[in-house]
Design goal:
The complex is a heterodimer of chains A (399) and B (194). Chain A has 14 helices and 15 strands. In chain A, the strands form three sheets. Chain A has an eight-stranded antiparallel sheet with strand order 4-5-8-9-15-14-13-12. In chain A, helix 6 runs antiparallel to helix 11 and helix 7 packs antiparallel against helix 9. The longest helix of chain A is centred in the N-terminal third of the chain and has 22 residues. With 194 residues, chain B is an all-alpha fold. Chain B is globular, with a radius of gyration of 21 Å. The N terminus of chain B is likely disordered. Classes of the chains: A alpha+beta (399), B mainly alpha (194). Chains A and B meet through helix 1, helix 3, helix 4, helix 5 and helix 6 of A and helix 1, helix 2, helix 3, helix 6 and helix 7 of B.
Chain lengths: 399, 194
């Protein structure tokens, strides 16, 4: 065998030779003092250089790829987001100051606020249902920052990645009369007598979707939002949340522009560029939404109050406020609506023989929403102007 | 508001995005999760700064996302990733010589967090800065193989990254080490250190 090359000696030092090569080289080294001394040189050089380079430390903390991936996705989303879905519109600049709370409304409606009714305890999933609505003031931190836009995108991406549509609502169906709508929707549709016949009645199809909660990504989003203080309960990871939304009915009165109808209706198309509700003439537009409670199925061990606490903190509540509020709520049946305290306020009112919540927004041309639940149907009456008008209108609802 | 929300959730159905995907989502995600920490660690060794390393790692994955052809073939993705990462990292190292002082300050705080003695810290930080100066000065291909080897890459992995035959790695490594040592002694003249 010829004398060994530096490369071979290097491979020998690094233990990168196979058995046969190793045997041959050992034999050669045993009989070749020149190669033995060269081996020593190669070995010493290698050790020195590796020692010097080994001083360059990698990170002394574990590198978690999940937040990085979430950021990457957000950037990707940014790149390819020519159209805005509902979620995108929620985070449109006009509404951004309240995004935390609005995101919360979505989250709450989907899986937070209606807690396990134990009637189905024997099943794997617990079925949840809205029986009551409670509003709560939250004070989102001011948000015109890039971080928040990114966080919003991450949320949006999370939803589009993890939501599986199980039932497609299809397009809303216009109906000629309340009677026809009642027949299609399967419950008695009520109208506002004082306002005469509705300008438009739409019935939205049933919809269903499932979402597998991914704690890592949700926590990454919180981290991105700068809220490392909020810890999501470990139990939520992998929990399957299934939501079923029955047929809902929207009745519109007065001068409600088509665009506005679409915006509030299901199956909304992406909005056109122009802001939709600048016109004064639509101030007399009132729409009433009637919806049987969506049902939400969650694993029985999912502690919704803990999730709600985290969500309320994200919306701007202090941890102690969120905690004490969550203690006061009957999570078995309550849908909690956070009202951003900087742009809106709410009061508890008597409406339709039950207790309801009247929310008035200072922005959006004094928009109001009157919410209540009666006989298993959620009502939401929306308009502009004096919020007390909503109470008068509600008093004239047909039976 | 609630009903609107419920309805708006319906609206998610048509609003779900169909982005022009070059990579199947799950596949790209798996690659990201598998390689990201190691890519960052390699870049941290080169640059001594976690934030910068993560920035560059992000750039690497952007490039990967835009190069879907890499998907085909065994081991090519990993090789491509670390080749691209070290190329970018070495470029940044070379470009950053003017910023060296600031980087060293950052490196000092990160690389020696575990050390007990401030004096040791200073000595080590100085040593790191010398090593990086040499890596910036030698041929990029040699800096590349050295930093990868120091990051624990096997010959097989090195061959994938460098698109070389595994049998040639020993020679490349030996040459790179000799070059590094010569340059180090030229720069710093400290025989006892190397």
């Amino acid at each position: 065998m010829n004398c060994l090359s530096d490369g071979t000696l290097q491979s020998y030092v690094d233990g990168e030779l196979d058995k046969i090569e190793l045997q041959e080289i050992n034999q050669h080294l045993a009989s070749c003092p020149t190669c033995r001394s060269r081996l020593e040189l190669v070995q010493s050089q290698s050790e020195r250089v590796q020692r010097a380079l080994g001083g360059l430390a990698a990170s002394n903390e574990a590198i978690d790829p999940a937040p990085a991936l979430a950021r990457f996705r957000a950037a990707l989303d940014d790149e390819w987001a020519p159209k805005r879905g509902w979620w995108g519109r929620v985070f449109a600049p006009r509404l951004r100051p309240a995004w935390g709370a609005l995101a919360l409304v979505g989250a709450v409606a989907v899986f937070l606020s209606v807690a396990p009714a134990r009637t189905f305890a024997a099943r794997i999933l617990a079925m949840l249902r809205v029986k009551k609505i409670t509003a709560v003031s939250v004070y989102p931190v001011s948000t015109e920052t890039q971080t928040d836009q990114r966080t919003a995108k991450m949320l949006s991406q999370l939803i589009s990645d993890n939501v599986v549509v199980t039932e497609d609502a299809g397009k809303p169906q216009p109906q000629a009369s309340a009677a026809a709508a009642s027949k299609l929707a399967g419950f008695d549709v009520r109208t506002i007598a004082q306002l005469g016949a509705p300008q438009k009645i739409m019935v939205n199809g049933e919809a269903g979707f499932q979402m597998t909660l991914n704690r890592g990504r949700m926590q990454a989003i919180l981290q991105e939002a700068g809220r490392t203080d909020i810890q999501l309960p470990a139990a939520i990871d992998g929990a399957l949340v299934a939501v079923h939304i029955p047929r809902t009915v929207m009745t519109a009165y007065g001068n409600c522009p088509e665009q506005r109808m679409r915006r509030h209706g299901p199956g909304s198309q992406p909005e056109s560029q122009a802001p939709p509700d600048q016109s004064e003439s639509e101030d007399n537009c009132v729409f009433l939404i009637q919806a049987p409670s969506p049902t939400v199925s969650v694993p029985p061990n999912l502690k919704l109050s803990q999730l709600a606490e985290a969500a309320l903190q994200l919306a701007g509540m202090s941890p102690s406020e969120a905690h004490s509020f969550c203690q006061t709520v009957d999570w078995s049946s309550t849908l909690v609506v956070p009202v951003p305290g900087n742009i809106g306020s709410y009061q508890t009112v008597n409406v339709d023989g039950v207790s309801g919540t009247l929310i008035s927004m200072r922005s959006d041309r004094n928009r109001y929403s009157l919410l209540w639940v009666k006989d298993g149907i959620i009502y939401s009456m929306n308009g502009h102007g004096d919020p007390n008008q909503a109470l008068n209108l509600a008093a004239s609802l047909t039976d | 508001m609630i009903a609107e929300t419920a309805q708006s959730l319906n609206a998610l159905v048509p609003a779900r995005k169909s982005r022009p995907m070059q990579w199947p989502e799950a596949e790209f995600e798996a690659v990201f999760l598998q390689h990201y920490p190691r890519v960052v660690n390699v870049l941290m060794r080169l640059l001594g700064e976690r934030t910068r390393a993560e920035e560059l790692a992000n750039d690497v994955f952007w490039k990967l996302y835009r190069t879907p052809a890499i998907r085909d073939g065994d081991g090519r993705v990993g090789g491509w990733l670390y080749r691209t990462a070290t190329n970018l990292g070495i470029d940044a190292l070379r470009a950053g010589t003017r910023r060296r002082k600031y980087e060293d300050a950052a490196a000092r705080s990160q690389e020696n967090a575990a050390s007990a003695s401030p004096l040791d810290d200073m000595v080590r930080a100085e040593q790191c800065s010398r090593v990086r100066a040499v890596l910036a000065a030698i041929k990029p291909a040699q800096a590349q193989i050295l930093i990868l080897r120091a990051s624990g890459f096997s010959y097989k992995e090195l061959a994938d990254v460098l698109e070389a035959a595994p049998g040639g790695i020993g020679t490349m490594l030996s040459r790179a080490q000799a070059e590094f040592r010569t340059a180090y002694l030229q720069f710093h003249g400290a025989e006892e250190e190397l």
